[in-house]
Amino acid sequence: MDALPLVALVAASAAVAGAARRTPVPAPLVLVAVGLVAGLVPGVPTYHLDAHVVLPLLLPPLLHTAALDSSYLDLRANIRPVALLSVGYTLFATVAVGWLAHLAIPELPLTAALVLGAVVAPPDAVTAAAIARRVGLPARVTTILQGESLVNDATAITAFRVALAAAVGEGMTWAAGIAEFLLAAVGGVGVGLLLMVPLHWLRTHLKEALLQNTLSLLIPFVAYAAAERVHASGVLAVVVVALYLGHRSWQVDFATRLQEAAVWKMAAFILESTVFALIGLQLPFVLKGLEAGGWAAALGYAAIVFAAVVVVRFVWVYPATYLPRRLSRRVREREPGTDWTAPLIVGWAGMRGVVSLAVAFSIPLVTHDGEPFPARNLVLFLTFTTVIATLVIQGLTLPVLVRVLKLPGRDPQTETLVEAQAQSEASAAAEARLEELLAAPHNRLPPPLADRLRSVLDRRRNAVWERLGAADPVTGESADDTYRRLAREMIEAERKVFVRLRDERRIDDEMMRTLLRRLDLEEAAAYRETDGP
């Protein structure tokens, strides 16, 4: 096996994603555009999306890191809109888009059209998170979109299996379809519930940070594989486990949390960059399947399906937003009111992604009767064009829409004030505990060391309040900026001395690495003390 094409894909994707951060265009869109162009360049290796690779190997870690970054409490507070979108909308879109495609495209039978509907139904978790971070959506809208994208893949994949069974001639009944859906949903949640406590226990009882992080990397694959082994939803199992572990992450050793955050941040960056590039690189495979001379009709059908996907989402989102509030006093009392702008954003933020393409490529070539799967190449083309159109059209215009609507985003000043108040309460508790400990005979310290503990506590308590202060009139720096700069300059001076001593052979490399690591930790601590949200 030649590993060079894979290494080249990952390296090029990371380079493009890094360069895209310097542009106003979201990185996913740049990666897709570069992939589209690269796929047509002669000599570029072919990269074929395989559902047997994407679903068990790429999807679990992407879902895991997205769920770890989500808030269980926020999702629970918004469980109704999240469920209506992730389950209700996905099933509605499967039927509605499939039916409209069947009516508009003569060569697309209803069974194949429902397969297409299931494939393009779920908005993508990776895309939703990436776009939401970039455009600065309101917190509740972001929570709803992230919650939807975490769960809807399970609904769509199950709906796809039911529709595919009917399309290939397995004689799937409505009762069997409902039973399979319930098995996938209940089973996936059940597997997640069974695994989350033992896995968390392991994480809190392993003493080596290296072993703990190895376990962290294996967890999404274990959860997904265990659920799929019993024909349940691996997606739901991964999400349930990750939400629980993220909610309980404060119980894990600090060294593990520091390493884990860095490891998952790097893994998410590499996987997300590669996934979006892979989407664009599928263009040659899609074009190869189209019949010569059918371009005009295929492009017309693509426009119809894209329009259906967009319209169907709005048809669901607005009633799902207002009808429950109108019909239920409990909903009105428990959930904040909203105007027309929030559902407009939710409706427009329906970008599709790699899961849709991977699932589409898993459609078999023939049915159980040995006949070619009806309009398979057309389904692949329509899936590809829908994914590209939603990413480009909706992805590019969503930031503009947010700015035009002037949605209230996160207020840094208010968040800093809340953070400062929380830090003040925590510091008061820490100060009381410190004095209690120092009063014990076995905890007595020399006054300079005791004062050092108090000064560290004071610095942590005052750091957040200082961010609310004015900038230096001469340098334009805040107190935090100055503190970090001076700390960095001091540490850099020490670092140069250690390197010089190593070069003069007065210390060896192992000692130098130990001393440099200590400085690195001190520099990280200086940044964390004054780092904003």
Automatic annotation (TrEMBL):
Gene Ontology terms: cellular component: plasma membrane
InterPro entries in the record: Cation/H_exchanger_CPA1, Cation/H_exchanger_CPA1_bac, Cation/H_exchanger_TM
Biological processes, Gene Ontology terms: sodium ion transport
Segments traversing the membrane: 29-49, 82-105, 111-132, 181-201, 221-245, 266-287, 299-323, 344-366, 378-402
Main location: membrane
Keywords: Antiport, Cell membrane, Ion transport, Membrane, Sodium, Sodium transport, Transmembrane, Transmembrane helix, Transport
MF GO annotations: antiporter activity
Gene3D superfamilies xref list: 6.10.140.1330
Pfam families assigned to the protein according to its UniProt record, in alphabetical order: Na_H_Exchanger (PF00999)
Record protein name field: Na+/H+ antiporter
